[in-house]
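One-letter codes give the sequence; the fold follows as C-alpha coordinates. An example follows:
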Amino acid sequence: MANADFEALSLPWSISTDQNVTRVSRDAAIAMAGKAGATRRKVYDLICESTEGLTDREIQKLLGMGGSTERPRRLELWRAGLITGAGRRKIGNRMGTVWISTDPSNVDVDPPDEYGRKSNEYSVD
Protein backbone atom coordinates (compact mmCIF):
# COMPACT_ATOMS: atom_id res chain seq x y z
CA MET A 1 0.00 0.00 0.00
CA ALA A 2 1.43 3.37 -0.98
CA ASN A 3 2.15 6.02 1.65
CA ALA A 4 -0.55 8.25 0.13
CA ASP A 5 -3.06 5.48 0.87
CA PHE A 6 -2.00 5.43 4.51
CA GLU A 7 -2.64 9.17 4.75
CA ALA A 8 -6.12 8.54 3.32
CA LEU A 9 -6.83 6.21 6.23
CA SER A 10 -7.24 9.22 8.52
CA LEU A 11 -10.69 8.12 9.40
CA PRO A 12 -13.47 10.55 10.30
CA TRP A 13 -13.74 9.30 13.87
CA SER A 14 -10.12 10.27 14.58
CA ILE A 15 -11.11 13.88 15.28
CA SER A 16 -14.55 14.15 16.81
CA THR A 17 -16.71 17.08 17.74
CA ASP A 18 -18.70 14.85 20.07
CA GLN A 19 -19.23 16.42 23.51
CA ASN A 20 -17.97 13.22 25.14
CA VAL A 21 -14.51 13.71 23.63
CA THR A 22 -12.31 15.86 25.80
CA ARG A 23 -10.63 18.95 24.42
CA VAL A 24 -7.26 17.38 25.22
CA SER A 25 -8.15 14.29 23.15
CA ARG A 26 -9.33 16.43 20.28
CA ASP A 27 -6.18 18.58 20.43
CA ALA A 28 -4.01 15.44 20.50
CA ALA A 29 -5.80 14.04 17.44
CA ILE A 30 -5.31 17.30 15.56
CA ALA A 31 -1.61 17.40 16.49
CA MET A 32 -1.19 13.78 15.32
CA ALA A 33 -3.01 14.32 12.02
CA GLY A 34 0.14 15.11 10.05
CA LYS A 35 2.07 12.18 11.56
CA ALA A 36 -0.63 9.52 11.63
CA GLY A 37 0.01 8.18 8.12
CA ALA A 38 3.71 7.57 8.75
CA THR A 39 3.01 6.02 12.14
CA ARG A 40 0.25 3.85 10.68
CA ARG A 41 2.68 2.69 7.98
CA LYS A 42 5.29 1.71 10.60
CA VAL A 43 2.71 -0.34 12.51
CA TYR A 44 1.46 -2.03 9.32
CA ASP A 45 4.96 -2.82 8.02
CA LEU A 46 5.96 -4.33 11.37
CA ILE A 47 2.85 -6.54 11.45
CA CYS A 48 3.52 -7.65 7.85
CA GLU A 49 7.16 -8.49 8.65
CA SER A 50 6.19 -10.65 11.62
CA THR A 51 5.88 -14.36 10.86
CA GLU A 52 3.71 -15.10 13.90
CA GLY A 53 1.76 -11.84 14.30
CA LEU A 54 2.18 -9.31 17.07
CA THR A 55 0.20 -8.09 20.06
CA ASP A 56 -0.24 -4.39 20.81
CA ARG A 57 2.35 -4.60 23.57
CA GLU A 58 4.88 -6.24 21.24
CA ILE A 59 4.27 -3.58 18.56
CA GLN A 60 4.70 -0.82 21.14
CA LYS A 61 7.95 -2.31 22.44
CA LEU A 62 9.46 -2.95 18.99
CA LEU A 63 8.58 0.53 17.69
CA GLY A 64 9.29 2.37 20.94
CA MET A 65 5.75 3.76 20.88
CA GLY A 66 3.31 4.42 23.68
CA GLY A 67 -0.04 2.67 23.66
CA SER A 68 -1.90 5.92 23.05
CA THR A 69 0.04 6.32 19.80
CA GLU A 70 0.05 2.69 18.60
CA ARG A 71 -3.49 1.52 19.42
CA PRO A 72 -5.35 4.17 17.36
CA ARG A 73 -3.15 3.43 14.32
CA ARG A 74 -3.70 -0.34 14.73
CA LEU A 75 -7.44 0.25 15.12
CA GLU A 76 -7.50 2.25 11.87
CA LEU A 77 -5.69 -0.58 10.08
CA TRP A 78 -8.19 -3.11 11.47
CA ARG A 79 -11.19 -0.98 10.50
CA ALA A 80 -9.75 -0.63 6.98
CA GLY A 81 -9.50 -4.43 6.73
CA LEU A 82 -5.70 -4.47 6.39
CA ILE A 83 -5.13 -6.54 9.54
CA THR A 84 -7.17 -9.00 11.57
CA GLY A 85 -7.04 -10.69 14.95
CA ALA A 86 -5.61 -14.21 14.84
CA GLY A 87 -6.06 -15.55 18.33
CA ARG A 88 -4.55 -14.52 21.63
CA ARG A 89 -1.12 -14.87 23.20
CA LYS A 90 0.15 -14.37 26.72
CA ILE A 91 2.76 -11.62 27.04
CA GLY A 92 4.06 -11.36 30.56
CA ASN A 93 1.03 -11.87 32.78
CA ARG A 94 -1.55 -10.55 30.29
CA MET A 95 -3.30 -11.99 27.27
CA GLY A 96 -3.30 -9.95 24.07
CA THR A 97 -4.84 -10.26 20.62
CA VAL A 98 -2.34 -11.30 17.96
CA TRP A 99 -2.62 -9.08 14.87
CA ILE A 100 -1.71 -10.31 11.38
CA SER A 101 -1.96 -8.89 7.88
CA THR A 102 -5.01 -9.82 5.79
CA ASP A 103 -2.78 -9.85 2.70
CA PRO A 104 -2.40 -13.58 1.87
CA SER A 105 1.26 -13.11 0.94
CA ASN A 106 1.97 -12.00 4.54
CA VAL A 107 0.09 -14.76 6.39
CA ASP A 108 2.04 -17.52 8.12
CA VAL A 109 0.92 -20.92 6.79
CA ASP A 110 1.59 -22.52 10.16
CA PRO A 111 0.40 -20.03 12.79
CA PRO A 112 1.19 -20.75 16.43
CA ASP A 113 -1.41 -22.18 18.80
CA GLU A 114 -2.54 -20.36 21.95
CA TYR A 115 0.73 -21.36 23.66
CA GLY A 116 2.91 -19.95 20.89
CA ARG A 117 3.85 -23.39 19.49
CA LYS A 118 3.74 -24.32 15.82
CA SER A 119 2.36 -27.69 14.76
CA ASN A 120 5.86 -29.00 13.96
CA GLU A 121 7.05 -28.17 17.51
CA TYR A 122 4.84 -30.70 19.31
CA SER A 123 6.71 -33.59 20.82
CA VAL A 124 5.28 -37.08 20.73
CA ASP A 125 6.09 -39.16 23.79
Remarks:
- The chain has five helices and two strands.
- Strands lie at 83-91, 94-101.
